[in-house]
Each structure stands twice: as structure tokens, then as C-alpha cells.
Amino acid sequence: MTNLNLGRGIAVFMTAAVLSTGAVYAAGMGDHAHGNEASTDTGMMSGDGHHGAMMSGDGHHGAMTAGSPGDAANASRTIDVVMYDNYYEPESISVKAGETVRFTIRNEGTLVHEFNVGTAAMHASHKDEMMMMMQHGVLGASTIDMDAAKAMQASMGHGMHDEPNSVLLEPGKTGEVIWTFPEDAQIALEFACNVPGHYEAGMQGNFNLNN
Question: In Å, how far are 20, 42, 134, 157, 159 from 25, measured between CA atoms?
């Protein structure tokens, strides 16, 4: 088995295991966990108007350490990023300190994937929220349940995946992140997928931050 297929196999196995655990958890929580019965409308409108994306908005998880939300008018360039099972193309990205970049993200995998800009500590913190989203029925292996996301947001204050440094996409969907990188080139930044099991399967890359 190739490394890529092995990575995908690990991610699928871990996702299935978490989904199974989440189903037991949700059954115990009943309506509090899921709200109404799941809808067949499994996407959310992203910032660029594509259905099936959950787009960011308010900067949780210490995003200011990693930079700040950018303005498209100030973007120096656009970088296309493609997400597969379970890796990115490109595998690493070079940016300038203080640069504003528009990232266009496309999910060509068969699973839900995330593009998230942050430090290793930010990704570790974000994993807990992503796990809860899976346990509450928001995240399926290849779908995003918008009704479950709204119910989770209403009951717990999060669930809509509304950070400006991140986009979460169903297979075949596209989105974008516009981000201004920090002036301090010594900050170590990664882009990663924090869907349970995906980061561990190797779905992360490094930003090379230059002066």
C-alpha cells in the first residue's frame, strides 16, 4: 500500500471509529444533541457563495497569533490549494511576513476536509471542537449537516465552524480564506485539517514565512 493510500486508510478508519462513538453519544443525548431530525441539506454557504462549505467569521482559537483576517482588495496574490484524502497540494506554501493572501480551496477528496491556518497549539485546541461537531452529528464522513450545526450553535455557542482562518468543505466543494500573515517571521504556522483522524494521518503542511 502506498503512503498516500495508507494515510487515507488510517483517516477513514479513525473517522468511522469516531462516527460510531458519536452515534452512541448522540443516542444518549437525544434531542439535545441533534435538535430536529437531520436534514438532507448538508452544506452551508461559504463566503464565495458555493454550497456545501462552512465558512469562517470571527477569529476563535487565538487566530491573532497567526495573523488576522484579510481584505481581498489587499491580497497580493491568489494561491490555489487542493485537498485530497489525506493531503494537500501544494504540500508547503511560502509567504512573506505581513503579506495578505487569498487562498482558493477545492476539496477533491471523498471525505469532508478542512483548510485551517494556525500554530500547532491552535490546531490542537481546534480538534476538540471538531470532535464535538462529529459527536453532535454536524460532521459525517463526507457530509456537513447544517441543521445539526445550527442546533449545536444554539445550545453550546459553537458548531457553525465560524473562524476566518478556516474553511470546511464537503467533497467537490470550493471555498476561500483571505489571510494577513503576522509581521513576525519566527512564528511557526501550519495549514491543517482537524477533522478527527485527518491531521494524525498526515493532512498538514507548513507555511514558510519569509521577511
Answer: 9, 21, 10, 19, 16
Q: Which residues contact 89 (CB under 8 A, 6 or more apart)?
A: 81, 82
Cis preceding linkage at 86, omega within 30: yes
Q: Which residues pair with 178 in a beta bridge?
A: 102
Q: Which residues pair with 78 in a beta bridge?
A: 102
The set of residues, in sequence order, having a beta carbon less than 8 Å from that of 137 and lying 6+ positions away, is 22, 26, 33, 34, 38, 145, 148
- Alpha carbon 87 to chain centroid distance? 13
Q: Which residues pair with 89 in a beta bridge?
A: 82
Task: List C-alpha distances in Å: 194 to 52, 86, 109, 129, 184.
Answer: 18, 11, 15, 9, 25
Q: How far apart are CA 167 and CA 174, in angstroms?
A: 9
In this prediction the pTM is 0.76
151-183 pLDDT tens trace: 998 988 777 788 899 999 999 999 999 999 999
